[in-house]
Amino acid sequence: MEVLREKVEEEEEAEREEAAERAEWARTEKMMRPVEVRKEETTLTQEMLRDLEKKLSEIQIPISAELPAFTKDTIDISKLPVSYKTNTPKEEHLLQVADNFSRQYSHLCPDRVPLFLHPLNECEVPKFVSTTLRPTLMPYPELYNWDSCAQFVSDFLTMVPLPDPLKPTVQKEEKVLPKKYTVRPPRDLCSRFEQEQEVKKQQEIRAQEKKQLREEEERLMEAEKAKPDALHGLRVHSWVLVLSGKREVPENFFIDAFTGHSYSTQDERFLGIESLWNHKNYWINMQDCWNCCKDLIFDLGDPVRWEYMLLGTDKSQLSLTEEDDSGINDEDDVENLGKEDEDKSFDMPHSWVEQIEISPEAFETRCPNGKKVIQYKRAKLEKWAPYLNSNGLVSRLTTYKDLECTNILEIKEWYQNREDMLELKHINKTTDLKIDYFKPGHPHALRVHSYKSMQPEMDRVIEFYETARVDGLIKREETASTMTEYYQGRPDFLSYRHANFRPRVKKLALSSAESNPRPIVKITEQFFRNPEKPAEEDVAERVFLLAEERIQLRYHCRDDHITASKREFLRRTEVDSKGNRIIMTPDMCISFEVEPMEHTKKLLYQYEAMMHLKREEKLSRHQVWESELEVLEILKLREEEEAAHTLTISIYDTKRNEKSKEYREAMERVMHEEHLRQVETQLDYLAPFLAQLPPGEKLTRWQAVRLKDECLSDFKQRLINKANLIQARFEKETQELQKKQQWYQENQVTLTPEDEDLYLSYCSQAMFRIRILEQRLNRHKELAPLKYLALEEKLYKDPRLGELQKIFA
Known about the structure:
Blueprint: H1 2-17, H2 19-27, H3 35-57, H4 82-85, H5 89-108, H6 146-156, H7 192-226, E1 240-242, E2 253-255, E3 262-264, E4 275-277, E5 282-285, E6 306-308, H8 322-326, H9 331-344, H10 360-365, E7 371-376, E8 379-384, E9 393-400, E10 408-415, E11 422-428, E12 433-438, E13 446-451, E14 460-464, E15 473-478, E16 482-487, E17 494-501, E18 520-527, E19 539-545, E20 550-555, E21 566-570, E22 589-592, H11 603-644, H12 658-682, H13 687-690, H14 701-746, H15 753-797, H16 802-807
Antiparallel strand pairs: 1-2, 2-3, 4-5, 5-6, 7-8, 8-9, 9-10, 10-11, 11-12, 12-13, 13-14, 14-15, 15-16, 16-17, 17-18, 18-19, 19-20, 20-21, 21-22
Helix pairs in contact: 14-15
Domain CEP76/DRC7 peptidase-like: 236-309
Domain Dynein regulatory complex subunit 7 C-terminal: 697-804
Region (Disordered): 1-23, 321-345
C-alpha cells in the first residue's frame, strides 16, 4: 500500500493548506484534491456528469426490487457446510482490510467504479472474492489444457443479461401463481359465413403485415448498422486473464467464460480493466485505458501499475534492472525489510467453498440436464450430451432468414457414436438439398452423400474414401439420365466414366431394378497417361455409342505435338441375316494418325483392336450395371441406418455396455456364492446341538450317536428345503411367463410396437431367470449327496465325537 500511503499524505497536507476550499467541497460530498487541479476539473467533471445522467435517464432499464437471486427458495442452504453460512475470525479480519482498502480507493479515485470485493454468497454472507476460488486438480485429461477446459466451463454456464447492465447484480425470476378458479367461457354464437369472411379478411391483413414486416426488417437492418450503443464502455463484464510464463504460455491472452473463446490482449472489444484477482491476492489497475487494453503492462509485481491489496501473499515480482539489483546488497537492509514484511503480511484465508467434484456422468453430461440452447441473431445453437438422444445427435445449428427466427434457412446437425459413421448432416431448406458427411469406417466407404430424395435415379452426389475401396472410386454423380464416376489410383489408369441412359419402358421398382436396368445409350471413359506406352498407342478417351454401334478412340498427345491421333470403329454383328460370317473391311475403321505407321493400316491389327474393344464394351456395360446396383444398395442401407440409428458403445463403458454389465454381474454373483460357501465351511456345525448339553460334560457313546443323527437329519432337511424353495421359484416364474404369453395371444392384434418390445424384453428376462433357476436346481441335486457324505465324514473325524471312532474302530 506504499502508493496509497504517499497519496494520503499529500491529501492531508493539501487539506491543511486549503481548509476553506475543503469545507466547500465537503458540502457537495466531493473528495478533496489540490487547489490548482480542482479549479480546472470542477466544471468539466460536472458537465460530464450531467451529460451522462441525461443520456442514462433516457434509457429505461427494468430493475427488479427483489435482490439477490439466490434465496432459500432456489437453494437448500440447510445442506451447505458451515463455511457457507459464517465467517471465521480470519475472514472477518480480511473483510475489514477490504473495507479499509475500498475506502482509501474511493477517497483517492472518486470518479472510478466501486470495487467488487465482497459480494454476498448463497447464504447472504459477505465473502471476499479471492476466497471463492479453490484450485483443484481434476482426473480428466481434457481439463488439463485451457481450450478444452474453457469449453467445458462454457457449456455449464448460461448467459443471462443483468437487469442493470451497470451493476453486478442478478435479477430474481418472478413466479406466476396458477389461478384456482376460472370462469366458464360463453357459447359461441357466431355465424360461419361471418367467420369465413373474417378469415379472408385476416389473411389479407396478414399479407399486408408480412409486407410491412419485411419493410420493417430492412429498415431495422439499416438502423442496426449505424445505431450507436448508449452504454458503450459502461457495462459490467468479467473474464479470465492467462499470464505468460508457466505451462509454456508464450503471451498473455483473455478467455471469455461464456463462449470458451480466447482473445488477444490487443483486441479492441476489451475496453479496460478495473481490477483482477486470483486465489492469492487482489490487484487494481492504476494504468490509463484510453487505448483499451493495448498499452497495458501485466506485470503484477509493479505497484505503480497494479496496486495490490495484501502484502504478504505470493505475487509476481517486478522485473529489476542490473543497476537496481546491485543496490540491494546491504544485509541489514534485507533483514529489516524482511521484518517489516513479516509484520505487515497477511495470509489469504483458506477458500470457504467445497472442493469441486465432477463425476464421470456429470463430466459427460456437460450442459445442465444434458441440454443447452443458445440464441443468436438469426440463429439458434442446441447442444446435447452424448447418448442423450437415441440417434446420437449432440449439436444442432439452425439459421433463420428473419429476426423473429420463424423462417428456417438451413440446419446443421452433428452426431457422435453412430454405427453408420454419420458425423454431420447439412439441410438447406431453400433448395431442399441434404448433405451427409461420414467418418472413415462405413461399409460402403461413404464420405459425403448429397441428395434431395432417397428415391433411386434422382439427382445425387456420393463421395467415397478411395483408399478404402479396391476400385479407386472417388465420386459418383447421378441424375435421371446420366451417371458419372471419378477414379484414382487404378492399374488400368481409368479416371472418368460417364454413362447416358434413355427412359426404360416399364416403371422402376426397387425389386425390379436388377431385372430391368436402364437402357444405356452412351459410355464415355477417360484414362490417365500410361508412361509405359507411347502416346500414339495410349488411349486418352474411349466412347461407346451403343445405339449407333460405333466406338470412338482418342489417344494422348505427345509433348512435341499439338494434335492427337483418333480412330473410329463401326461395330457390326459377326454374322449377317443368312448366317454368313462378316469379314473385316477397310470402311469399318476410320482413323486419323499424326504419324502413320504401317502395322496400323493392316486389317488384322484393326480386327484385333475391334474385338478387344467389343470385350471392353461388354465389361464397361457390366460395370455401369454394377454401379446402379451399388447405388440401390447404398440407398437401402441408408434408409435402414436412419430408421435404426444404432449407436456404438465402448467396451470400457460398463454403464451402457449391456454385455459387459451382465458379465460383471455374473462374476459378482459367483464371487458372492463362493464367499457364502467359504463362510458356510467355517461355521461350527455342532454348536447348536452341543448347546443342549451341560457345559464341560464328557459325551457318552449314546449321546455322540444322537448328536450325529440329529446333525445329519437337520442338514438333510435344510437341503430339502433349499431344493423346494428353488423349485417353487422355478414354478412361479414359469406360471408368470405362461400368463404373459396368454395375454399376448389375446391382445396381439391391438398391441403397439412399444408394447411388443416390452413383451419381448420381458420374455427374454423371464427365460433367463428360468434357465438360471433350472441350472441351480440341477446343481443342487448333484451336490446335495456329496455335501451330505462330506458332513458325515467330518462328524466321524470330529474329536468332540470321539466315542464314534471307538464304535467303528
